[in-house]
């Protein structure tokens, strides 16, 4: 094998996690990054970044509707073509920009599908590449259920690339992807159906807050089909017919599968080299090593209970790079906040409400309806609600749930308080801008 095909570390996947590892390692090592899809990964190309761009526009329309009786006149409409052009003004430059960044940093990179030949050798297009260490950073992929007519199902990637918004669409599933995209589509003018196999949305978030999201989406004309499993999808002239296991029939223009995003591992041939995985991803230890010590896994490719989020992937990428370069400490995650951009926003961080409710001797739970507070009166956000979870022994904030128009902002302040392990009395020495979300903290956390 020629010297140019030998590296210190090979990274499979050029998303946020893989890139974080690559840039740190490249300061001291010869690194190869392999990507089979779009350079930059899911988040900036067809995930959280373009979704947030669409969300920002449609939520401005919703906020204008809330202000309609407070002095704002006229109505707003969504021009889907212009909205897509706005999204593309960002996403179109991501792949080339990512590749140029790698080249500028002197990081070797290759486009193609990788698989293991052995624990030190990766093959791409019949060419072998060797390295002492290998990092699996392949991310996750949309799941298409095995049902008759699955060829008619589309994914979130397809939704975020629609040139024209269909008149009527359906989402199969009720996780954060389905909920967020259903909100965007409904606000943009489509008739939206959300099909769920039980009567619960956003598994992993408090059910009582989920009910608020359901009410908000219902007010935006989203139709929920509860306890409904899709039996098959058929094409009928220019429409698609969804048939449920209990005889339900829904006729729409497009159907989007949003029932989860499994780890993208199919191409790697992990079993061939004895790397263990399960339905959630690659199994790793507290150093993010797989069952083979020189092979690491990070980000959405990992089997873990932590939220699979872009910042988590980047954090893990940096950690693995430091470990490969000689660090020995096990990974220690910071407090991780998670927001669903559902209109309003729905955030949680730290100790979960369910856990605190099961341990009343350890935690105080304070749920406050804050719609009448100044901040939320100003935003016409009448249903805003915040729950804080505080330790009884030290009076430290350890968890929070926020349902509000500005949840993404407020949860970041609360996350900082949790991370710093500050008691409520510490807020007496902090003087934020008034009035603002920050100035409400002394009322929320006390």
| Principal-axis shape | globular
Low-confidence stretches: none
Q: Please state roughly what percent of the residues sit in beta strands, choosing from under 5%, 5-15%, 15-25%, 25-35%, 35-45% or over 45%.
A: 25-35%
Mean pLDDT: 95
Helix content: 25-40%
Note the topology:
Blueprint: E1 6-12, H1 16-25, E2 31-35, H2 42-46, H3 48-66, H4 80-91, H5 94-104, E3 108-111, E4 114-118, E5 121-124, E6 127-136, E7 153-154, H6 156-159, E8 168-172, H7 176-188, E9 191-195, H8 207-219, E10 222-225, E11 230-236, E12 239-244, E13 249-252, E14 254-257, E15 277-278, E16 281-282, E17 295-297, H9 310-324, E18 337-341, E19 345-350, H10 353-358, E20 363-369, H11 374-378, E21 385-391, E22 397-404, H12 407-420, H13 441-444
Parallel strand pairs: 1-2, 1-6, 2-3, 6-17, 7-14, 8-9, 8-14, 9-10
Antiparallel strand pairs: 4-5, 5-6, 11-12, 12-13, 15-16, 18-19, 19-22, 20-21, 21-22
Helix pairs in contact: 1-9, 3-4, 3-7
